[in-house]
User: What shape does this take?
Amino acid sequence: METTSNPSLHFVFCINSKRMIAVLGLLILRAGAVPADRYVTFENPNPCAVEGSSVKFRCSYTYDFGSAINTAWYKGETRNGTWTRVKLSDLPSYENRSEYVGDLQQDCSLALHDLQPNDTGYYYFRFDTESYGWRSRESVYLSVTELSATVNPDTVRVGDSVTLGCRTSCQLHSTAVWFKDGRLVAKPEFQAQAEDAGNYFCAFKGQESLQSDPVALNVQYPPLNVSVEVSYPSILTANSAVNLTCSSSANPAAENYTWYKRTPSPSSSFLLQVGSGQVLSLPSEEASHTGLYLCQAGNALGENTSTGVLLSMKDDFSTIALHQTLLRAGFGLKVVILLVLPLIVICCCKRRQSKSAVDKEENDRDFENFSAARS
Assistant: This one.
């Protein structure tokens, strides 16, 4: 069977083919000349920031024709099992925290403030012109990290080495600083002393207000500053009880208390154990209780002894009252003497004068008698 061809149909097909090739070629050239990733560039595609701080996505974009009339940032989220890009302005959690700091020309930078852990994720940029719209294929992945202070080891004895650390989930090119109970720590490594016990937290220099949760350092030491307190009733009587209480600073707390009394003797002075427990009670004041009392406090790390407390019966309340009475009586006696002394002097003078007159009269009589006898 012979077939015939239509020349007009061949002509139309050739024209259409040429047009299709021309269009495809133009699209290919345009796609190769204007790739999406070429027009949006991120300076740091993997930023990391501390929770509570701010971060800036430095971004730039270019285009060959038209002018940008709209820009927007998006965050990638999974909704109903589908990965989608959601405009930040449509997310309530970013209200008053996201700030577009770019322009409608080349800068597309974005700032996020008061970062929260759920801000971690992928971010995309899109711009529209009068002729077309572009969105970035690449993204910015933000990591929001928490600060974690460390004390190694966290329980030490006095004199042991301690090292402070500050950890994050990503590498930050910042210098860490440490604080103890609100005060700056000079060095992250030191030999522990009793006063180093407390809560430590870290921050980064320049962001001291963004601090980690506190971590405790436990420093153990034997009893220090052992002292004795004397307590007694407000009114002392002959049978009043006196209590001696021993106290100290220790970690762990002192468990053992031993009381000693230093008794002087003609030949030597020695310590005599007189009790145990934190309180030593003397049921009544007696002469045998006089002496110098000392307390020894101890825990698993060591012992320490207080300075002495001197008890003397001569210093009790009744004796003091007696001394005060004697002083008052002495003062009254002085007043009486000052008032009576002149009278005594006057009386003595008069007495001497009268005695002189009597003696003279007696002498005269003797002379007269002697004269009469002589006559």
